[in-house]
Design brief:
Elements (H helix, E strand, L loop, with lengths): L1 H63 L6 H10 L10 H18 L4 E4 L15 E5 L2 H10 L6 E5 L8
Parallel strand pairs: 1-2, 2-3
């Protein structure tokens, strides 16, 4: 009988020791979890800050032209590569706009117009201005327009000077 009591006591002590070890391991893991959770919150906060910084940077770049390059450089390359002013300056949309603008010019007796961002001049060929000045950021398109309208003394074109930026 004593032997059984001793054996049960030994088993009980072993169970208690195992329980204590498991409890210590659980406490250690809980502390590790809390530390990781805290680090994760810190990492998330840094990610949010980086995300905000990236968005701010993107917005600054978009202000220049949406592509991170100065507008004049973008449009010069665009026109050098046979790009045009876009769908609104051609075909049905261009004709519709020209009809409205021509009616307005006649009704309001407009004598002269300055267009900032004149583009490739296709829309201009449909509108009847008495005196037209076109300004654009693209030296390439300004020179092309001067050539295309060289025999029309009612039209003149100028390239907008670009401020140099260091990015």
């Amino acid at each position: 009988m004593q032997e059984e009591k001793d054996k049960l006591k030994e088993e009980g002590e072993q169970l208690l020791q195992n329980y204590n070890q498991e409890q210590e391991e659980r406490n250690r893991l809980e502390e590790k979890y809390k530390l990781l959770e805290s680090e994760n919150k810190d990492i998330n906060a840094r990610c949010i800050n980086l995300s905000d910084e990236i968005e701010h940077y993107k917005k600054e770049q978009i202000k220049e032209n949406g592509l991170g390059i100065p507008s004049g450089e973008f449009w010069n390359e665009h026109y050098k590569n046979n790009g045009n002013s876009g769908t609104g300056s051609y075909h049905r949309l261009a004709e519709f706009k020209a009809e409205i603008v021509n009616q307005f010019i006649t009704k309001e007796k407009i004598k002269s117009v300055i267009e900032i961002g004149c583009g490739d001049g296709n829309q201009l060929s449909l509108i009847h201005y008495n005196n037209y000045t076109g300004v654009d950021v693209s030296e390439v398109i300004v020179e092309r327009n001067k050539k295309n309208y060289q025999n029309d003394n009612t039209k003149q074109f100028f390239a907008q000077k670009q401020k140099e930026k260091n990015i």
